[in-house]
Write a structure and sequence with these properties.
Number of strands: 0
Structural class: mainly alpha
Largest sheet: none
Number of domains: 1
Number of helices: 4
Order of helices and strands: HHHH
Length: 139
Amino acid sequence: MSQPPRPPERPRIGPGSLAHLLRALTAASVLLSAVAHLFLWADGMSAVDVVGPAFLVNAVGGIVLAVFVLAWYSPLPLLGSIAFGAGTLAAFVVSTTPGGFFGVHETWSGTPQLLSAAAEIGAIVFAVLALVVERRRST
């Protein structure tokens, strides 16, 4: 009696795989941005109308999102990371314009600001790469 043909092996997605590494880098990027916003919120942004509460929401949301990226192997947390990175980076860029963002005028200087911008770019890039790798795995 012969064995039925085996389906071709698919690349792993768990620990040790490229997809897992990209998810870890995505989560680390989101978490770095969240912690930077929490630091800025505690350092005085909490007193600023609209933007202060947004910094706190960003911090808490980023921490939760980072956990989801690692714990839930669905494209949704990766898509959320792209939206998180793009939205947060866009708000920062708008805040550096002459009109500012809800009255806040920011500059491209300061360690938390530059770390956040780099982390948000990282969140976008790593999440897109993770989606591509995982998409290849599923086809």
